[in-house]
Structure formats: structure tokens, C-alpha cells
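User: Just a sanity check before I run the rest of the batch. Below are the C-alpha cells for the first item. I only need the designed sequence back.
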């Protein structure tokens, strides 16, 4: 399986804001906790310890590769029956999953949004700049449209909007126009082909000054579009969480994108549903940022259901 580190075949993703998440969730034995983005189980491993054998953990991920990592890390086969349920689903489908397990409400929810470092290493889906496979960028390849198909079928103005809104890319128009010109002769199917088009579209001065791969924002935008990430979060915040969280229950959400953070902040402002526990988002300490650069943009917001 890809997405593993070298010969060791182990997940490499480090859970972000781990200490803060565990503290803010205020866990105790017997609670029912949902990790809506279980990934490699980095947070869930600690959640399980805190809720003990009387507790229940429900771990969701859209990506079956990540669920395999989690199954291994959490040692699901060795746990008492019913203590841990792992399911391939979007967190927005939580009410259906709960129904299947025979539950209607829960005590805690964690969402750690976005992409896992392990997915970056999955050559087959094009998440990493070095990937040689098709530029798919979906967490669940059985639904929706791969990114390369979006690039082939969306109009120039739609592509421009995707790059501008989801990627906050300042050269959106130039990139969209270059892509549309390029695809007339051959579809853009791989990470390398996309990076080349982006390099051609960006002014030479900006390209020379770029401190990261110039296609970073375009990749992020396409991933968000291919997975309908903001729509999933909107459903979760708007209807799912208010419906399934018990009064006094807590939701902790880590976002890496300003649009997501704004959505969470807005939702938690609604005092008819939430008591906001983090007027300012919690960010990673300097020490954590040194060990795990990925956490530099992480923002944790927590609220209690009224
Ligand atoms: C940042 S990782 C989570 C890492 C995890 N907390 C850990 O420490 O191991 C985000 C995970 O969320 C998954 N994901 C993204 N959107 C999702 C959604 N709508 N529903 C369920 N899982 C989702 C991704 O496939 C990825 O595995």
C-alpha cells in the first residue's frame, strides 16, 4: 500500500494540537466520541485511552487507506466488541452511521480537517507534487469527479473561481486561461503537467520569488473542489452537529484554511445552539511548530452544545 514511510510501512502523520485537543474535549470514561476525520488514528488513540472500555469511539474517514492505518494503530481487533467502530463515510453522513450502530446522540466530536501527510505519499491519487499517477485528489475515489476531469470540463471562469475562492491564488485568471489553452491540445492528467502549466502562467518575477511550489494553492483549491470539502463542513455545522450532540456535549474543530475557520467561527457564534469555549482560536506552540511544520496554520475552535 502506498502512503507509508519507506520499508517500515507505518503512517508518518503527526496529530496536530494533540495535547490541546484532548484537554479541550474534557474526556472521561464511558463517553461516546466521534472522530469524524480519523485519519491514521493519531488523536483517536488518545481518545480511546481516556474513554476506556465503557466508552465508545466512532471513527469516520472517506479514505479506505486511512481507515486501514487507523485499524492497525488502534488495534481494533483486540478491543472489546462495540468499543470502536470505524466506517468509511463522510462526517456529514454521521446521523446515518449512528443509526446503523443503534445510537442517536453523542457526547463529543472532533474534526481535524483537510489532508493527512500519509495521503501526500499516495502516488496513485496525485496528492503530492511528485506523484506520477493521475491527478485525482479525491479522498473517496468512488464518488464525484477526479481533479483532472474538473480541469478538462469546467469553464475558464469556473476554474478561475475555484482557484480564487478555494486557493486564494492571486494569478487565478492567468492560470485558468493557460489551462484552457493547454487542454485544447492535450488533457492535463498528472501533477507534473499541472505544475508546468502553472509555471507557464505565473509572471517570471513571481515565480522566481516563490518560496514554495508555485502550484501549492492550485492543488489545494482543486482538492477542496474535488471533495466538496466546504459543502461537507457546511452540512456538519448547520444541521448534523446541532442534531446529534447532547446538551453539554463538545465539538472541537481544527481547520487549516481561512474559509473553513471562518465557517466554524460563524457557526459557534450562534448562542441558541453553542457556548463558544474559544473566543480566540487555539494555535500550535512554537515547540510543536518546530517538530511539525504542518501545524503552523492549524486553528482549533471548541464549543459546547447548550
Ligand atoms: C488531517 S487528517 C486527520 C488526521 C488524524 N486526526 C490523525 O491524527 O491521525 C484528515 C483526514 O480526514 C479525512 N477527511 C477529509 N474530509 C472528510 C470528510 N468529509 N469526512 C470524513 N473524513 C474526511 C481525510 O481523508 C484524512 O484522512
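Assistant: Here's the designed sequence for the first item:
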Amino acid at each position: 500500500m502506498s502512503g507509508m514511510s519507506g520499508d517500515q510501512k507505518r503512517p508518518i502523520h503527526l496529530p496536530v494540537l494533540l495535547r490541546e485537543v484532548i484537554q479541550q474535549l474534557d474526556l472521561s470514561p464511558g463517553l461516546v466520541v466521534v472522530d469524524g476525520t480519523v485519519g491514521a488514528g493519531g488523536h483517536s488513540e488518545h481518545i480511546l485511552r481516556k474513554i476506556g472500555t465503557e466508552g465508545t469511539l466512532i471513527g469516520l474517514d472517506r479514505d479506505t487507506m486511512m481507515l486501514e492505518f487507523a485499524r492497525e494503530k488502534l488495534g481494533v481487533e483486540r478491543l472489546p466488541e462495540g468499543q470502536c467502530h470505524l466506517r468509511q463515510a463522510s462526517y456529514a453522513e454521521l446521523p446515518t452511521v449512528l443509526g446503523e450502530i443503534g445510537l442517536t446522540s453523542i457526547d463529543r466530536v472532533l474534526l481535524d480537517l483537510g489532508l493527512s501527510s500519509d495521503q501526500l505519499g499516495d502516488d496513485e491519487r496525485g496528492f503530492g507534487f511528485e506523484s506520477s499517477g493521475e491527478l485525482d485528489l479525491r479522498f473517496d475515489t468512488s464518488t464525484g469527479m477526479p481533479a483532472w476531469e474538473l480541469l478538462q470540463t469546467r469553464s475558464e471562469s469556473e476554474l478561475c473561481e475555484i482557484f480564487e475562492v478555494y486557493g486564494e491564488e492571486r494569478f487565478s485568471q492567468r492560470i485558468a486561461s493557460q489551462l484552457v489553452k493547454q487542454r485544447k491540445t492535450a488533457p492535463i492528467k498528472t501533477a507534473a503537467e499541472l505544475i508546468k502549466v502553472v509555471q507557464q502562467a505565473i509572471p517570471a518575477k513571481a515565480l522566481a520569488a516563490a518560496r514554495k511550489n508555485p502550484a501549492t494553492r492550485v492543488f489545494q483549491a482543486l482538492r477542496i473542489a474535488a471533495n466538496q470539502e466546504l459543502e461537507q463542513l457546511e452540512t456538519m455545522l448547520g444541521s448534523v452537529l446541532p442534531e446529534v450532540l447532547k446538551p453539554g456535549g463538545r465539538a472541537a474543530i481544527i481547520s487549516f484554511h481561512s474559509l473553513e475557520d471562518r465557517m466554524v467561527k460563524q457557526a459557534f457564534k450562534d448562542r441558541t445552539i453553542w457556548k463558544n469555549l474559544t473566543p480566540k482560536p487555539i494555535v500550535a506552540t512554537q515547540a510543536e511548530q518546530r517538530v511539525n511544520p504542518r501545524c503552523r496554520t492549524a486553528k482549533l475552535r471548541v464549543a459546547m452544545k447548550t
